[in-house]
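Quick one:
INPUT:
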């Protein structure tokens, strides 16, 4: 995370610029666009051909990088990883996870991807990696050591994979 005032101002003004990564990685229900495939309205590296009338899902989504997380070099089209957040309710309590969608399969195994994972784990984040190349997409949890015995995460993991929790 950035700390000095000038850096914070720069981060606050972040724009997608040439990045169109989430137009591939994310499902857009309103367009029946599956995750992991380019939206037909996307001009990769340039933007949205229907920007003024784009679906609400597109209007409201912003990745963590756009929200200010991490340096410019991990912008999703550069790191090939789109970060987001999702909150599940387990046993009446909210559990916030960081989602990771690869723009290219294997991106998280590359140096930039590994840097992102290690930084997030070091911050204590529970990660949910989506594998978009499968239909339906598969997911796996990456849990920081301090939270390995968290029963809430184990319960959510079991529920997501259609198993009974122990
Ligand atoms: S992945 Fe983030 S930076 Fe890239 S287009 Fe989507 S919201 Fe913008
Ligand atoms: S409609 Fe536009 S903003 Fe939405 S996914 Fe398609 S190209 Fe991206």
């Amino acid at each position: 995370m950035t700390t000095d005032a000038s850096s914070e101002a720069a981060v606050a003004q972040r724009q997608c610029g040439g990045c169109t990564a989430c137009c591939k990685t994310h499902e857009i229900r309103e367009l029946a666009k599956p995750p992991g495939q380019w939206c037909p309205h996307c001009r990769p590296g340039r933007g949205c051909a229907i920007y003024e009338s784009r679906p609400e899902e597109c209007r409201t989504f912003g990745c963590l990088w756009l929200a200010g997380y991490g340096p410019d070099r991990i912008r999703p089209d550069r790191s090939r990883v789109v970060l987001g957040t999702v909150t599940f309710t387990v046993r009446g309590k909210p559990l916030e996870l960081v989602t990771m969608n690869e723009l290219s399969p294997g991106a998280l195994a590359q140096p930039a991807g590994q840097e992102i994972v290690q930084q997030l784990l070091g911050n204590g984040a529970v990660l949910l990696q989506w594998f978009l190349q499968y239909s339906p997409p598969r997911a796996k949890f990456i849990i920081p050591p301090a939270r390995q015995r968290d029963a809430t995460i184990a319960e959510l993991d079991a529920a997501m994979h259609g198993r009974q929790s122990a």
